[in-house]
């Protein structure tokens, strides 16, 4: 049986003046998949992701997210996705529980749902003692776990994660990936960008962006095989060797 | 020294890479000097008044003509009742009414006494007194010519000389004022915000752990704004002397010297504010909300300082712009030299030193 | 609708959490309103005068006495050297120099003609003309007195015109009465524009706005969520100023209708917040927003007729003043609070303000993009 397609992009392109940030990328993401979106800094990952989230209108090409068109149906897309940006994106001057209630509320959760969900969430994250602390006062790792949990509070079809584990220690990263697996088990499709190659190994499939082009797309196993490499690191170096653009 | 240059260069990059802010930094003072230099004047001209002439005789007509000829008034002739005058005041269409009673001329010539009523909308007391003074002067003047000759007695002639500004131009007063306003506020604002911004972004920590005197980090932030302000000053001076025919009678060097000190005072004040707050919003609120109105009022270009109650006159002394305003007027318009303004310059220098010392003391090398 | 409630709850929590900012936006206008109107006094008094008396006669003494007794002038120095007095003049110690020539008395008695020289510091044109007008008036009165003395009793006095001046609405010419409403409006404007513009741009700078933009929040809900809290704060600050400071400290009790005044305030605040919103859509950083807001507020305040009369401005500046919402509200404040004008008299002001509110908010909403 064909797997359900939740993201489909065809020749998706974004130009800023003469600069082509994302050049005719084509790919599909299946329901329940953990899809790794890899590339060096400046390769066009964030631009591509913003187009998929409806934050940025593509210059050319087509794409549908959860069956909705990225040009015409951005508001419908937004009902069906969660998003966690590169910058930390909760309100630092609100408390943990206020942030959860706020974001849950604007996604239309009922008061009953809000109550039960925020309790469950706080328990899973072990934040019982921090409930009434300002988010700004939490350590970065906790903030990011909280931000992820808030992004999937409304049970979206797909969640987009833009370098979610930047700047946190290996233990926290591991815990973060446990949260991702949990979400994936519940049927949420995960679309994640990262430049940690060990994280690439956790994905079902990975794609590799170089200079705005999508240079590779396969499972980590197959990629290592075709490039004759032992680790994803080597695959990355092999593909990125010819890159023109410098990182930012 | 090499490191210091690197820091200064970095700050210049910050300033010049942000064209929007740059445009504002240069565009704003230019726009302001033009706007306010031309538009602001304390003079009261073209005020709409109404003459209510129940007499319609020779004397009333002669006085009316004189009032109509004055540039201070825009006159309409209407027979309004007191009620109607009140209505007109309430809708703001007129500012004053001059009422001639019945038989004005008759009373004047046969009883030796006649009355004119001036009714002013005194909700604006300044306009009300000024307008009634103008009208009074015209009426008194007419009186002389209306009264038969031969009765004149001895006469004192007063020759009035308007010194420094014979045409009574508003520009002479407002250009130095706006200069003080712009240089002070822009300086305070930009330094305070640019430092607090680094605090907020967390980049300040990076700078402070560098093997480099943290104080110089701060100084290097102020340098681009110092030069920017000097450029602004130059543009303002060129504009005001070409467009507004504002003279620069005194030494240009002295003017720049005094301006540099004011700019330094502003930068030092900006440093102090940035050391006392840690959010951009707070820094802006202090430098704008708290400073705009006091600077407008206490510099002395809108309202004469001598009129203020004593405590406020004392408050005004703490405003650097007040002293700078005095210097600019003395140098630009009166053409005076060092001998006349050294006191004000010393006061400004004292303020700068005080502010710098204070902000250095408050400056925390280790961020809390 | 429900998401608007969540947005409002969030905004209010954030505003009330930051106590120091809250204290500033409420405290600063109140303190300034207490002090500033006292400084904004145009009434010219205590004009400093230098007198150079070359004559030192009875007539010159009498004249000087009259000048000092008038209460408008403060004698700075009295000398026989014009040079010396002019130095005082240059050093800003005096505003006027009155020179009485030698033989002033003799000429008056013998030739029936005397002359005086008056030098005025005219940098501030108004002060100069008012000061010299006062002095000329005093000299004129002195002249009359001398004439009376000179005329024999048999000849009738020349006819005089008496001028009765009535000052309506403010018979004691109380200046703060005029300034307080205008200054209050400017302060409320500052609070509204700054807070609204900075708040939204801060979300841009920190990145939370991106998070909001991927949610299904409607554009107008987000904007309303920002405008309503600042609208409430604006009304609060205004009421505190009008019912607190203006009433208690200055004894100003609005003559006109309060509901009328508050309906105007309501529309005015919407217009002002629209400007804040508009500024935020054009700025990426708080620094930019603040510079823009600063410029706009300076122009608004200085070209509103608050401090200098609009009638005296050149035509092009009058056009700007007429496009300035502050001009209208200051006029309306003065009309309703001081003169008791009714709706009929300010109808056109209402229409203008509604137009401003629609224009600025419309522009801002069109310019506010959830996507790029």
Task: Walk me through this protein's architecture.
The complex is a heterotrimer of chains A (248), B (368) and C (372). Helix content of chain A is 36%, strand content 26%. Chain A is built from nine helices and ten strands. In chain A, the strands form two sheets. Chain A has a six-stranded mixed β-sheet with strand order 6-7-8-3-9-10, sandwiched between helices. In chain A, β7 (158-162), α6 and β8 form a beta-alpha-beta unit. The radius of gyration of chain A is 18 Å and the shape is globular. A four-stranded mixed β-sheet of chain B has the order 2-1-3-4. The two termini of chain B are 28 Å apart. The mean pLDDT of chain B is 83. In chain C, strands 2-1-3-4 form a four-stranded mixed β-sheet, with helices on both faces. The model of chain C has no long low-confidence stretch (mean pLDDT 86). Chains in contact: A-C, B-C. Chain A binds chain C through residues 50, 53-57, 74-75, 78-79, 81-83, 85, 87-94, 98, 101-103, 105-108, 134, 160, and chain C through 2-3, 5-7, 9-10, 13-14, 17-18, 206-208, 210-217, 370-372.
Instruction: Please report the two chains with the greatest interface, counting residues with C-beta closer than 8 angstroms to the partner's C-beta.
Output: B-C, 119 and 124 residues
Radius of gyration of chain B: 28 Å
Q: SSE order of chain A, as H and E?
A: EEEHEEHEHHHEHEHEEHH
Biggest sheet of chain B, open or closed, and with what strands and sense? Answer: 4 strands, mixed
N to C succession of SSEs of chain B: HHEHEHEHEHEHHHHHHHH
Structural class of chain B: alpha/beta
Shape of chain A: globular
Oligomer: heterotrimer
Overall pLDDT level of chain B: 83
Helix content of chain A: 25-40%
Low-pLDDT parts of chain B are none
**How many β-strand stretches of chain B?**
5
- The span between the termini of chain B is 28 Å
Compute the number of strand runs of chain A.
Answer: 10
Trace the largest sheet of chain B across and list its strands. Answer: 2-1-3-4
Could you describe the largest sheet of chain A, including whether it forms a barrel?
Answer: 6 strands, mixed
Structural class of chain A: alpha/beta
Strand order of the largest sheet of chain A: 6-7-8-3-9-10
Amino- and carboxy-terminal Cα gap of chain A: 43 Å
Q: What proportion strand of chain B? A: 5-15%
């Amino acid at each position: 049986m064909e797997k359900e397609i939740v993201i489909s992009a065809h020749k998706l392109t974004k130009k800023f003046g003469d600069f082509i940030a994302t050049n005719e990328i084509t790919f599909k993401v299946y329901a329940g998949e953990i899809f790794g979106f890899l590339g060096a800094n400046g390769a066009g990952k964030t631009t591509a992701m913003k187009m998929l989230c409806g934050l940025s209108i593509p210059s050319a090409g087509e794409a549908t997210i959860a069956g909705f068109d990225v040009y015409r149906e951005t508001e419908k897309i937004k009902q069906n996705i969660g998003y966690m940006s590169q910058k930390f994106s909760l309100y630092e001057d609100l408390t943990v529980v206020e942030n959860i209630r706020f974001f849950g509320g604007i996604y239309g959760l009922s008061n009953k749902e809000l109550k039960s969900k925020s309790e469950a969430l706080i328990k899973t994250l072990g934040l019982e003692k921090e409930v009434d602390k300002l988010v700004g006062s939490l350590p970065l790792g906790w903030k990011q776990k909280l931000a992820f949990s808030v992004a999937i509070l409304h049970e979206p079809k797909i969640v987009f994660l833009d370098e979610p584990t930047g700047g946190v220690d290996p233990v926290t990263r591991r815990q973060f990936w446990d949260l991702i697996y949990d979400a994936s088990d519940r049927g949420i499709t995960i679309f994640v960008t990262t430049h940690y190659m060990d994280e690439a190994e956790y994905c079902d499939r990975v794609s590799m962006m170089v200079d705005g082009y999508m240079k590779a797309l396969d499972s980590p196993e197959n990629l290592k095989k075709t490039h004759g490499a032992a680790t994803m690191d080597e695959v990355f170096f092999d593909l990125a060797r010819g890159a023109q653009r410098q990182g930012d | 020294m090499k490191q210091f240059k690197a820091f200064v260069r970095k700050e210049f990059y910050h300033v010049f890479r942000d064209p929007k802010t740059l445009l504002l930094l240069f565009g704003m003072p230019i726009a302001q000097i033009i706007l306010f230099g031309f538009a602001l004047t304390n003079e009261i001209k073209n005020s709409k008044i109404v003459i209510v002439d129940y007499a319609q005789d020779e004397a009333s007509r002669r006085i009316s003509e004189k009032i109509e000829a004055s540039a201070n008034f825009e006159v309409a002739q209407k027979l309004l009742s007191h009620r109607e005058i009140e209505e007109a005041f309430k809708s703001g269409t007129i500012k004053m009414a001059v009422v001639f009673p019945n038989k004005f001329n008759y009373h004047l010539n046969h009883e030796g006494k006649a009355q004119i009523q001036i009714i002013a909308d005194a909700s604006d007391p300044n306009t009300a007194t000024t307008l009634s003074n103008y009208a009074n002067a015209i009426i008194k003047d007419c009186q002389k010519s209306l009264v038969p000759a031969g009765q004149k007695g001895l006469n004192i002639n007063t020759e009035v000389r308007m010194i420094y500004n014979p045409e009574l131009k508003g520009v002479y007063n407002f250009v130095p004022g706006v200069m003080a306003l712009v240089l002070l506020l822009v300086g305070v604002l930009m330094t305070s915000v640019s430092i607090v911004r680094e605090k907020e972004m967390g980049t300040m920590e990076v700078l402070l752990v560098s093997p480099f005197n943290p104080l110089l980090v701060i100084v290097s932030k102020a340098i681009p704004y110092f030069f920017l302000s000097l450029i602004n000053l130059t543009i303002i001076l060129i504009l005001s002397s070409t467009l507004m025919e504002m003279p620069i009678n005194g030494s240009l060097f002295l003017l720049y010297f005094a301006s540099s000190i004011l700019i330094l005072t502003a930068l030092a004040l900006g440093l102090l504010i940035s050391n006392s707050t840690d959010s951009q919003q707070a820094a802006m609120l202090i430098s704008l909300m708290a400073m705009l109105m006091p600077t407008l009022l206490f510099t002395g270009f809108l309202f004469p300082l001598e009129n203020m109650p004593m405590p406020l006159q004392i408050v005004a002394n703490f405003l650097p712009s007040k002293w700078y305003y005095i210097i600019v007027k003395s140098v630009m318009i009166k053409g005076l030299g060092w001998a006349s303004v050294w006191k004000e310059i010393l006061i400004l220098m004292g303020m700068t030193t005080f502010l710098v010392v204070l902000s250095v003391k408050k400056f925390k090398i280790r961020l809390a | 609708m429900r998401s608007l409630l969540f947005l409002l709850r969030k905004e209010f929590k954030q505003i009330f959490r930051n106590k120091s900012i809250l204290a500033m936006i409420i405290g600063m206008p109140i303190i300034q309103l207490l002090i500033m109107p006292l400084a904004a006094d145009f009434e010219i008094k205590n004009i400093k005068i230098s007198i150079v008396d070359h004559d030192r006669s009875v007539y010159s003494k009498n004249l000087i006495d009259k000048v000092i007794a008038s209460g408008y002038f403060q004698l700075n120095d009295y000398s026989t050297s014009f040079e010396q007095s002019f130095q005082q003049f240059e050093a800003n110690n005096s505003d006027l120099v009155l020179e009485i020539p030698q033989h002033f008395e003799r000429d008056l008695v013998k030739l029936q003609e005397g002359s005086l020289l008056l030098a005025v510091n005219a940098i501030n044109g108004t002060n100069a003309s008012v000061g010299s007008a006062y002095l000329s008036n005093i000299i004129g009165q002195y002249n009359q007195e001398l004439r009376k003395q000179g005329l024999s009793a048999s000849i009738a006095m020349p006819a005089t015109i008496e001028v009765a001046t009535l000052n309506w609405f403010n018979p004691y010419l109380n200046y703060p009465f005029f300034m307080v409403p205008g200054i209050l409006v400017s302060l409320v404007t500052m609070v509204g524009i700054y807070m609204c513009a900075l708040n939204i741009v801060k979300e841009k700078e920190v990145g939370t706005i991106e998070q909001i933009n991927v949610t299904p929040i409607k554009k107008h809900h987000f904007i309303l969520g920002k405008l309503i809290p600042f609208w409430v704060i604006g009304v609060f600050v205004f009421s505190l100023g009008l019912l607190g400071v203006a009433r208690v400290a200055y004894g100003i009790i609005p003559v006109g209708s309060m509901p009328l005044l508050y309906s105007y305030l309501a529309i005015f605040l919407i217009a002002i917040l629209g400007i804040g919103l508009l500024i935020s859509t054009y700025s990426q950083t708080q620094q930019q927003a603040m510079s823009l807001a600063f410029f706009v507020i300076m122009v608004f305040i200085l070209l509103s007729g608050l401090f200098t009369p609009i009638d005296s401005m050149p035509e092009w500046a009058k056009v700007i003043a007429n496009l300035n919402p502050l001009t209208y509200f200051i006029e309306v404040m003065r009309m309703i609070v001081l003169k008791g004008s009714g709706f009929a008299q300010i109808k056109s002001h209402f229409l203008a303000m509604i137009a401003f509110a629609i224009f600025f908010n419309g522009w801002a909403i069109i310019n506010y993009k959830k996507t790029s």
